[in-house]
Amino acid sequence: MSSTFGTVFRVSTFGESHCKGVGAIVDGCPPRLPLTEADIQPQLDRRRPGQSSVSTPRQESDTVTILSGTENGITLGTPIGLFVPNQDQRPGDYKEMSNIPRPSHADYTYQMKYGIRASSGGGRSSARETIGRVAAGAIAEKWLRLNHSVEIVAWVSAVGALEAPEIDASAISRADVDATIIRCPHAETAARMIDAVKAAREAGDSLGGIVTCVCRNVPPGLGEPVFDKLEAKLAHAMLSLPATKGFEIGSGFAGVRMPGSAHNDPFIRKGDRLGTRTNYSGGIQGGISNGEPILFRVAFKPPATISKPQATADFNGREAVLEAKGRHDPCVVNRAIPIVEAMAALVLMDAALIQRTRA
What we know:
By secondary structure, the protein is α+β, with helices and mostly antiparallel strands. The chain has eight helices and 18 strands.
């Protein structure tokens, strides 16, 4: 199993959804970076369960402890250990699912690959695994902010068939995003999204959605063609997240409907550098950042674990009806916001440190 991400700034996550705790080991963080738990906790608070009426009711404080790698609030350049305890485990909720693989979940595939699986809560395929990513991403984000003034903001742009109008990515802030519990900064659409998620929950069902993310002030020159192009690394990062089914950057799939004369981004002078008049490239050209905002979208499927009865089969192939118990998100996109931001930060910091080796 691969649980490590990154080349220079390397993050290894550990833990299952109902074990004693989860976390990460961060290796390659530069020394002398001011860092305490207070730098990490805000993003974990945005990710934690039980925070609103449209998320899972599981109650976890997700309080992080830095175990190693710092002294007197300063990084030492040694591995940083991060730990978050699991406090509200209910493995008994999954007893019925021990013999019946949940449709579209990882139960069957993990069993086939390893011959064993964590039958309570999905184990490593659970979104609890992303806690380590978010904690590590907060470290990367602080380094990027201090060294390059990078700003990373993600928001919910679609839930089910509901899509928010296009939003000015140059000005949106996290405060704008967090103004609604669904984390869509368009208030009218957000209200309809919230109603749709609540209706899905009442029906024992779930909904998917889209998260849009902008990374501002990214310096030009990041990315390693040809196989480690910056958009390829971002796609790798985003599609490694639970429940993701699609990634597009810049104009994405809509770009195929445009002629090249309209899709090209003409260069203009912006202060002391070249910039582009438009940004259909999404801030990356030839696999390398060009200094424009990096803009991408991630599609999340409807959560696979639902309480609506489903006709399926058990591991022996016998017909069965599964009505999942436990506490599950009816839609994951609002809690995915800090996770997407974290993975973007991990990619950008790793690319920036790799680029430093060329100096």
